[in-house]
Amino acid sequence: MMRLLCICGSLRATSTNMALLHALRDTAPPEFELAVYDGLGGLPIFSPDEEAERTPPQVSRLIEAVALADGLIIACPEYAHGVPGGLKNALDWLVSGEAPIGKPVMLVHASPRSMFARAALREILKTMSLAVFDGAELEVSLIGKKPPDFEPILSDPVIRDMMRASLVEFGRFIKH
To answer: How large is the average pLDDT for residues 140-145?
Structure first.
């Protein structure tokens, strides 16, 4: 069983990226177990003075979830040509520890317009010594869609096949 931790960079209740992660989890082949992290908005603002023995419990839970995962999947929107603050804050909490080092990570996208954030996020992850999957990135365009529109798109057999194929390819990368 390959355990993957999914992290959404959006805190929006009707996030297209979160919808994509849930669909990915629900359509994963049986050899994959995907958990969607939901604590991003509850993390305190990063401070190096609060690390080590002073690490807040919600941060410790994030670090433990990352450490226990075989790989990460990150779905990240773009805000003002950058990575959203909540996601960057979570990554800042992880940067000085060992949990992310060498951890395989795949980026998935619910918008074709996130090119600046994609580049910035890749740079951050590589700087943190994560093993960024450079295979075909999963992109399912949900831009401009409302929640009632998500399900027909995300349940389309072609899209589901694409999601499963992306996971299988990422799984090969993890095992490599």
So the answer is: 95
